From TrEMBL:
Protein name, per record: Glycoside hydrolase family 130 protein
Recorded GO MF terms: hydrolase activity
Keywords: Glycosyltransferase, Hydrolase, Transferase
InterPro entries assigned: Glyco_hydro_beta-prop_sf (IPR023296), Mannoside_phosphorylase (IPR007184)
Lineage: Bacteria, Bacillati, Actinomycetota, Actinomycetes, Pseudonocardiales
Cross-referenced CDD domains: GH130
Gene3D superfamilies: Glycosyl hydrolase domain, family 43
Length: 511
């Protein structure tokens, strides 16, 4: 480990581990060669199918053998994937029941392509304790790292790594990251239940006709599924002669329920092989910057995250919930504070309320509260850009970390030349709306060997992990790699108290 001189000696120590994008981590995705009409109302899919069906059985056997030799080692169940893709287009195959199994599998290969999830970039990590801490020596902690992966078309997904953190001989931190293995998979998505009150708020935010929305909601139970929604929409549409907004409200309602879903992975897969892939319409252009945190619930520890859902035009914070990193629930958030990028949940309730950091106005760090963790009301500004290294905007770098001295919030700030640096705030433990301290200078800025990449001059984290008297801070370096730093927590707390709250925050709090 080497001290970070820019951050003031032993306060921050950069660790030697670096993760970089691996273009060999590929998914076998459905591929349809165009839907454009070429002649006689036949699509390219029809033309491709006709040519494959014309192959001799010898050509089928030889071609399929070559495909399997070349691609089987890159996917856990390639035969199953190809069979599944054939099933999805089987309705376009004339007399498909009479085809050999080999020809059906080969047709599936023509409707499959590999997608490299990390082809463009790998960055913006968060770290949480692993659900399984068995078999470790004294002072060692197994962790789960979430990552933003970017592939072809700038499409972002959420993937994971695991590793172990422990003391080194000098009293600092030693970090190892496990080999993720050769396979990746996106799991099996499925429907989930929906809360009527949250759904009502989402409909209102989406601009649904108020009269039509009220009629629709009156036909739903407090918890409903998609079949119950379909029946309520059917009743609404029957009244379209007098409820002119009913058709559009029904369309909005169907889109909203598709934004919330569950996804599960095979028990035999490892955490590092699982990829949260965009399935809902609100995230069709990517799932960005997941901020995971372990939370205490009545049923035991669980994991929550926010991430930015992007549909190509609009962005919105959404939630991920899991207890084991094998089954995940994806859901929407509502309310004035659940806007823009960069929400981050607190690890526990305070005063009986759920709390979250919010940057709803795109410039300032704010504190939001919620009765249920789903609808987030008006937020209170905590921190406005005031230091030279953050004057463009500021935001959080993940969920607050609880200490006896208060909540430590890692922040990011954007300065001249759009350089991103990381700072820190200290919030009162019992009243997190009070800012006790804030670093005058950056905690971590881009080192010379971290300045070049997909987005230059950026260091950015989505969540630190406390281990004893250290914070492990994983961070993206210019969207080109993931690096790690160890922060001496007692020294950081001393520095935060000594620097005191930023002047602009003091003025804002007293206003």
């Amino acid at each position: 480990m080497t001290p970070d001189a820019r951050a003031g000696g032993a306060l921050v120590t950069r660790l030697p581990t670096t993760l970089t994008a691996d273009p060999g981590r590929v998914l076998a995705r459905m591929f349809v060669p165009g839907h454009d009409v070429v002649a006689n109302t036949q699509s390219r899919a029809t033309g491709v199918l006709a040519r494959v069906l014309a192959l001799s059985e010898d050509d089928v056997r030889r071609t399929l053998r070559a495909v399997l030799v070349r691609y089987t080692d890159r996917h856990r169940d390639l035969d199953g994937v190809l069979a599944g893709h054939y099933a999805r287009i089987a309705h376009r195959v004339p007399d498909g029941h009479g085809l050999s199994e080999q020809r059906r599998t080969l047709i599936g290969a023509w409707f499959t392509h590999e997608y490299s999830i990390e082809a463009a970039a790998l960055f913006n990590p968060s770290a949480v304790p692993h659900p399984d801490q068995s078999g470790l020596g004294p002072g060692r902690l197994r962790f789960v790292l979430s990552l933003r992966a970017v592939g072809e078309g700038h499409l972002s997904s959420v993937e994971f790594r695991t590793g172990v953190l422990g003391p080194d001989a000098a009293g600092g931190l030693e970090l190892t990251v496990d080999d993720p293995g050769p396979f990746v998979e996106t799991g099996r998505p499925g429907p989930t239940g929906h809360d009527r009150d949250l759904f009502a708020a989402l409909l209102a935010e989406a601009g649904a006709d108020e009269e039509s929305a009220s009629f629709l909601l009156a036909g739903l139970p407090a918890r409903f599924d998609e079949d119950e929604l379909d029946r309520a929409i059917g009743a609404l549409v029957l009244q379209r002669a007098t409820r002119h907004g009913g058709v559009r409200t029904g369309e909005l309602a169907r889109r909203l329920v598709r934004c919330s879903y569950e996804v599960g992975f095979a028990p035999g897969s490892t955490i590092a092989e699982r990829v949260l892939w965009p399935h809902g319409p609100s995230e069709s252009a990517g799932m960005e910057d997941a901020r995971f945190v372990r939370v205490d619930t009545d049923d035991g520890p669980a994991y929550r995250a926010t991430y930015t859902a992007f549909d190509g035009t609009d962005i919105a914070p959404q939630a991920i919930d899991t207890t084991d990193f094998r089954r995940f629930r994806i859901s929407q958030l509502a309310g004035p504070a659940a806007r823009n990028k960069g929400m981050a949940f607190f690890p526990r309730t305070v005063g009986g309320r759920h709390l979250a950091l919010s940057r709803w106005d795109r410039e300032n760090n704010s504190l939001a509260s919620s009765a249920d963790g789903r609808w987030w009301g008006d937020s209170r500004t905590l921190h406005v850009p005031s230091r030279p290294w953050e004057l463009t905007q500021t935001g959080n770098c993940g969920s607050p970390v609880e200490t006896d001295a208060g909540w430590v919030v890692l922040t990011h700030g954007v300065g001249p030349m759009r350089e991103y640096s990381m700072g820190a705030l200290l919030l009162d433990l019992d009243d997190p709306s009070r800012v006790i301290g804030g670093l005058r200078e950056p905690l971590i800025g881009p080192a010379e060997d971290e300045r070049d990449g997909y987005v230059p001059n950026v260091v950015y984290s989505c969540g630190a992990l406390r281990h004893g008297d250290h914070l492990l801070v994983p961070y993206g370096a210019s969207d080109a790699s993931v690096r790690f730093a160890a922060v001496d927590l007692p020294l950081l707390l001393d520095r935060l108290v000594a620097d005191g709250p930023p002047a602009a925050t003091r003025e804002n709090s007293s206003a």
